[in-house]
Amino acid sequence: MGPIGIFDSGYGGLTILSDIRERLPQYDYLYLGDNARAPYGTRSFDVVYEFTLEAVKELFDRGCELVILACNTSSAKALRTIQQKDLPHIDPDKRVLGVLRPTTEIISQFTKSNHIGILATEGTVNSQSYVIEIGKFAPQCEVHQQACPLWVPLIENNEHHTHAGREFISKDVQALLEECDQIDTILLACTHYPVLKEYIESLVPDHVKVISQGKIVANGIADYLRRHPWMDAKCTKNGTVTFLTTESKEEFDRNASDYFGEKVESMHISLNH
Ligand code: DGL
Predict the structure, then answer these.
(1) How far is the CA of 187 from the centre of ligand 1 (A)?
(2) pTM for the whole thing?
């Protein structure tokens, strides 16, 4: 038995953990942010896969039976290979889940025009995962994507509030809106982006909904645990949260509360050993 592992390249997954914890406060959680190697969004398929697998193994070694990739880039580029190729060898009774599936299952409920805009990292956009997955669940919807390669570096470096940072963000949002004037739903398909939600809302017309994934993913996990009582029984329930970072602990603790909404005390670990 062990805590639920939550992984992200850096701080972004904390926005997801915050919503998961609100929805499922009884469980124990072990968060791992690979801040030292973030961002993942501009890295190749092979590198994202390799880094994500290292993180998953670390969380397994620390007792997790269930790991959530709270990172769209990892979910898009590494999840399937880990599930199909690695898990059967590592431990067929453990599970790794991502954020893409729960989101793509229900995103069409938000649109009336059937035109959905996706803001994401370059890696997620190039993988075409959102286009393919939304196509399966809602073939009537047209998906318009905009890669935002500078956003995660801006956020990780706490520069997203600066004038220059806001200019870059606004430029990408305008580019998405210009792609199709029928977009009425914009999905923030990167777990770092919820910290920009209010600003993005101020940039789009009133009728355009800006959707972040946290609550959607939290409901998806609650549903998964309800449908898989054998896994639920393996997840410990003492209401604790533990944080690990591959960067400096001080730096992580200083920034993490902006994403998690509470004071955070982390521990430094190394992944590439
Ligand atoms: N939070 C990750 C995501 O959802 C950010 C990826 C990155 O590190 O570039 O895609």
Answers:
(1) 14
(2) 0.95
